[in-house]
Structure formats: structure tokens, C-alpha cells
Specification:
By secondary structure, this protein is of the alpha+beta class. It contains 2 helices and 12 strands; from the N terminus they run ααββββββββββββ. Strands 1, 2, 5, 7, 10 and 12 form a 6-stranded antiparallel beta sheet that branches. Strands 6-11-8-9 form a 4-stranded antiparallel beta sheet, with no helix packed on it. Strands 3-4 form a two-stranded antiparallel ribbon. The longest helix is centred in the first third of the chain and has 29 residues. The protein starts with a helix and ends with a strand.
Length: 205
């Protein structure tokens, strides 16, 4: 009877020892404590860090090899509105035009318009013309380009519909920029400003 009990405990001890060895091997191969394995992985939110907004494209015109540009932003206009013309970058339809001018249009009150003297080798006037995004979409401005007192081109622009123009200036001495806004009178607010993106005179070399 004593021999049977001894045999029983010997077998039991061997089984326990074998089980301990198996558990140790499993833990060693996993490399992760049981408590850590039961912890849920942290979730990643798609909106945690918003993607950076792309910068607005910058429009820089290139002159042909036989021509050069005179930007209106570098010239001094004649006329009473000359001191009210603002040179500098403007944003039209999502793009930046670095060599530009802007000024307020006639919206019911008398307004003088800037005029520019042209060189003898002036050939074309080029610009992208529009309203700033701050104006309501239904606001429009009528644009009139005048050369030597004669109308060269008329068209309409809005915040949603800018226009790119390329007008012949050959033989002309002056270019006047006129605009008439659909906003209210300046005394009642909502005066309309027109941006002349990269407004330039193309001159033959």
C-alpha cells in the first residue's frame, strides 16, 4: 500500500512539472506578459490630425523671348484715382497673382479711373480680372478698357466668373481702366473692388 501511494505521488509530481514546463515555454515564445496581452490596442482616429491644406497656386506669366512686361503695379497712373490704386498680390478664383492692382468701382457716385501712358513699343494688355471672394456671388462689375478715348473691350466679371483678357494696344498712347459695380453706393456700403491679376503691358523688345 505504501508503495502504491509513493508511485501515485511520483506520477502526479511528474505531470505537474511537465505542465509547468509547457506553460513556461508558451510564455517565453509569446514574449508578452499575459496581462499586457489582454489589454486592448489603442484606437487611431482618422480625424486626430487633419491633413495640412495645400497652398494656393501662384500664377507668374512668362514673356516671350521677343517681348517684355511692364506691370501696372510698378507704374504710376494718372487721374484722380491714381492714389487709390492698391498694388500688390491678389487672390482670384483660388490662385495668387503677385503683380496686381485693385481699386473700387463706380457704384453710383462720381468716380475717376486710372489711366496709364503707354510706351511706343506697347503691343498688348493682359490680365485676369475678378472680384474678391468676400463679395456676394450675385455682385458683378462691368469692365471697360479704353485706349486713346476709344472703347477697346467691355465685359462683366463676378467673384465666381473672372475673365482673362488679351487686348491689342498697337499704336495707342494711353490705356484707361474703368469699372462699374452692381453694389450699393459707397455712402450705403458694399462698394465693389475689382482685382486686376498680373495686369501688364506686353512690349516688343
Amino acid at each position: 500500500m505504501q508503495r502504491g501511494r509513493t508511485f501515485f505521488w511520483t506520477i502526479t509530481g511528474s505531470i505537474v512539472a511537465a505542465a509547468a514546463v509547457v506553460i513556461a515555454l508558451i510564455l517565453a515564445n509569446s514574449g508578452t506578459p499575459l496581462k499586457a496581452a489582454s489589454s486592448p490596442a489603442p484606437s487611431i482616429s482618422a480625424s486626430a490630425s487633419p491633413s495640412p491644406s495645400e497652398p494656393a497656386p501662384v500664377v507668374i506669366p512668362k514673356a516671350p523671348s521677343t517681348s517684355s512686361f511692364s506691370y501696372l503695379s510698378d507704374l504710376v497712373p494718372s487721374g484722380k484715382l491714381g492714389e487709390l490704386v492698391s498694388p500688390g498680390p491678389v487672390k482670384i478664383d483660388g490662385s495668387i497673382y503677385p503683380k496686381s492692382i485693385s481699386f473700387y468701382c463706380n457704384v453710383g457716385d462720381p468716380t475717376a479711373f486710372p489711366a496709364y501712358k503707354l510706351k511706343h513699343n506697347a503691343r498688348r494688355f493682359q490680365a485676369t480680372i475678378g472680384l474678391g471672394a468676400k463679395f456676394p456671388p450675385h455682385f458683378e462689375a462691368g469692365i471697360i478698357l479704353v485706349g486713346d478715348g476709344h472703347t477697346l473691350r467691355t465685359f462683366t466679371v463676378s467673384a465666381l466668373r473672372p475673365r482673362t483678357v488679351d487686348v491689342n494696344l498697337t499704336g495707342l498712347h494711353t490705356l484707361q481702366l474703368e469699372c462699374f459695380g452692381s453694389g450699393q453706393s459707397s455712402t450705403a456700403g458694399w462698394a465693389v473692388s475689382v482685382a486686376w491679376g498680373n495686369a501688364r503691358v506686353v512690349e516688343r523688345r
